[in-house]
Amino acid sequence: MQRQFDWGRFLLIAIPFLWLLIFFLLPFAIVVKISLSDTANALPPYVPTLNLSEGWSGITSFFSQLDLESFAWLLDDKIYFLSYLNSLKIAFISTLLTLLIGYPMAYGLAKAPQRWRTVLLMLVILPFWTSFLIRVYAWIGILKPEGLLNMGLMSIGLIDQPLAIINTPTAVYIGIVYSYLPFLVLPLYATLEKLDQTLIEAALDLGCSPIQAFWKVTFPLSLPGVVAGCFLVFIPAMGEFVIPDLLGGSDTIMIGKTLWSEFFGNRDWPVASAVAVVLLLSLVVPIVIFQRIQERQREAEA
Amino acid sequence: MADAPEQRKVFAPWLDTTQKPLIRFENVTKRFGDYTALDNLTLDIYEREFFALLGPSGCGKTTMLRLLAGFETPTSGRILIGGEDISHVPPNKRPVNMMFQSYALFPHMTVEKNIGFGLKQEGQSAEAINERVKEMLALVQLEPFAQRKPHQLSGGQRQRVALARSLAKRPTLLLLDEPLGALDKKLREKTQFELMTLQEKLGMTFMIVTHDQEEAMTMASRIAVMDKGVVMQLDTPSDIYEAPNSRYVADFIGNVNFIECTVISHNGQEYQLKDKQGNQFRLISEVQLETGSTIWLAVRPEKVIVSKEQPQGDVNAVQGIVWDIAYSGDTSTYHVRLPDGTTLKSEMANLRRVRNRPITWEDTVWLSWSLTAAVPLKR
Ligand SMILES: Nc1ncnc2c1ncn2[C@@H]1O[C@H](COP(=O)(O)OP(=O)(O)O)[C@@H](O)[C@H]1O
Ligand SMILES: [Mg+2]
Prior knowledge:
The structure holds 2 protein chains of 2 kinds. By secondary structure, chain A is mainly α. The radius of gyration of chain A is 25 Å and the shape is globular. In chain A, helix 3 (about 70-75) crosses helix 13 (about 270-300), helix 8 (about 170-195) crosses helix 10 (about 210-240) and helix 9 crosses helix 10. Chain A contains 13 helices and 2 strands; from the N terminus they run αββαααααααααααα. Chain B is an alpha+beta fold. Chain B has a 6-stranded mixed β-sheet, with helices on both faces. In chain B, strand 12 (about 270-275) and strand 13 form a beta hairpin. Magnesium ion binds near residues 61 and 101 of chain B. Adenosine-5'-diphosphate binds near residues 32, 58, 60 and 61 of chain B.
């Protein structure tokens, strides 16, 4: 029996691949290409550009002009390495802070009476209805010296000098934790919500206090949700640009900001592209780890 | 006789007034909102009993266990263990362990860790835990599976891990919530036997929930038959079967025929009864029946004999037509339609091969039972 070629199936699989090809792989190839080029006072501001009218010799001369100069440059100047390192540190600490705040929230949500849950979940999702940019701007209004927070604290007499929060790393942490909290709470809630309640009862039955039962049963079984949530915070926080730009000071260097200033400030597209390529490659590692963990989790559940 | 088996002492602490109960439910009521799951329950359970809770789904069996384990608190009334009110002792401080209906094995721990969990919680030394876990693994014959995770085990193996885990701490009272529900018939019967042996060997008190009447009959020292949060009858298996106190209990345990009768007269313990059709029955019973009152005669099908010839001697007999024969291997159940349209069942051992059976469909037959075979029920 010959098998009929299944066009429906083919299309179904082809569409997401096509999407990735056009909107991810192709742009990435262009960025890689630019990172291998040299700056030039031209439009676009780099050479070489591919000239197909010259035929084969055009192609060979195009490839011969590509080099790793921009990447070498990244190693030369300490600023890039420091930016990566600082991004890593900020992403790591804010992920930890988000987890510390998000875990109790997700736990509370999962334990809340059924009739309250939808409302509480809505409250977690609600901020998404406003633009991300506007919400970050709003934090300036809260954190600046004459902002809501300082005014409030001073009016109740807790402080007599405005706290310097805006334009410091603290403001960046606040911004990141605030912006990415739902990304951690939602997957964690999903994990905690489907946790079998009788397991907790079994732990109590076998002599655990409620707190011990949490650490021995609830927490280990919620780890998949913790891992998923942490990666969903860590990965975008690593490349974050808007929050450090708006809330952080000039001393808060993050790789996203460095990339921006290379691109728009120095108009050095090849170096900016090289920074982007390295950032992406450095993120591939945690993304792959994340995928592997998720896959193993799914296998264990099956 | 020289080699006669040693006379076993009858185990019946509930008859001994000097015995103190291990567990006492005192007017315990449990409500969930408006819904009354347990209604003013009072009962005693003694040490070393194998106590069975039997009843249809939703009658409050699990609720009773959860009250004992400490996951629920009574709305009113008291629960005593060893004479002490435990209503407000948290679950982790009770000398009670539970084997959950769903087993509730910790999925992130190996079989070994699961079994040792309660011991580790008690703060026992690693060697002590190790030794006890080995002992438990041997008991449930799971030594080769010590390092497996629960999802790598079959249903029967998980059930045995759950049992081992609940036994490991040597609880005063072990609660088993439909422990054998997930097993097939053969394995269930084998496990029932193992549980009984185990209980006797360990000298522990077991309280088992089941909705399988045969299971309760086989294993229990006493059975509480429940309906809608109320204990209908609390007795030994044979008393429940032979002397049910209500149509509900008689019907729940095994098969039964009911005949509605009026008491006409009596001479000592021998009663004269009449059904609606005018058939007269005789009954010898220790139960006091009032002349003129309406009662139900409960007759077990295996105590009803079906025959072609009119039975002779001191028996009750009615005539009818064979309506259906349900063959179940060792026995056949004859459904006999009486002139008034009601059906009585008779269960007969298949002593001969079915082909040689003298009675078949549409035959006119006699049903008979002895004067002591029926039980009169007032409700
Ligand atoms: N936590 C609860 N909230 C509300 N109703 C409950 C709760 N637990 C049990 N019930 C109700 O109490 C009744 C008895 O339940 P249960 O003891 O589990 O019955 P079963 O005899 O089948 O084990 C059921 O009708 C059930 O719906
Ligand atoms: Mg139940």
